[in-house]
Protein: TrkA family potassium uptake protein
Organism: Rhodococcus olei
Amino acid sequence: MRVAIAGAGAVGRSIARELVRGDHHVMLLERNLDHVDPEAIPDAHWVHADACELALLEAAKLESYDVVIAATGDDKVNIVVSLLAKTEFAVRRVVARVNDPRNEWLFDESWGVDVAVSTPRMLASLVEEAVSVGDLVRLMTFRQGEANLVEITLPPDTPLAGKPVRKVQLPRDAALVTIIRGGRVIVPQPDDPIEGGDELVFVASVEVEDELRGAVGLVR
């Protein structure tokens, strides 16, 4: 298949790697030039473009793709990309990432979405199945032996308590995707404070798991 992915962050790249491994043609659309890194996935076609701009989608020949995946961290962008893909380019299948569960009701056929994937809801379900305070728990493998979805539940006396997310020095190949706190699913923003007892969910390569433990103040 020919698959176009809007958003080349941790989620978009993980999806792209899996599809490339399956011998599919993948195009990654990314508006942030700092995130455009062809060496990260050399078999994918990288395009520096805002996926909400109709002219840029036309230049990328979006109509020639079988599937469009709106995988950015912004629900508004994912909705616009989905609508354009379906109404302007007649893409057969549109899959959209839902970052904030409160927006799930928007992600339906009227907005061009065939399949909505609520990342926080999925992660919350997985975390409920495997929670161990003060240790790193692998929840899902994105690419065999290379990248995993992992969860760390912080102890009540964590040294990170009160610090904003931006102060956590994560290793290069790790990204914080969700904080689960008291039944709430939080899409982390740079100034959001971390609290003891938080369940932190990351996408991380196997090689940096020990570094990740150190970054959140855990001793293996």
Remarks:
- The chain has five helices and eleven strands.
- Residues 6 and 29 are 5 Å apart (CA to CA).
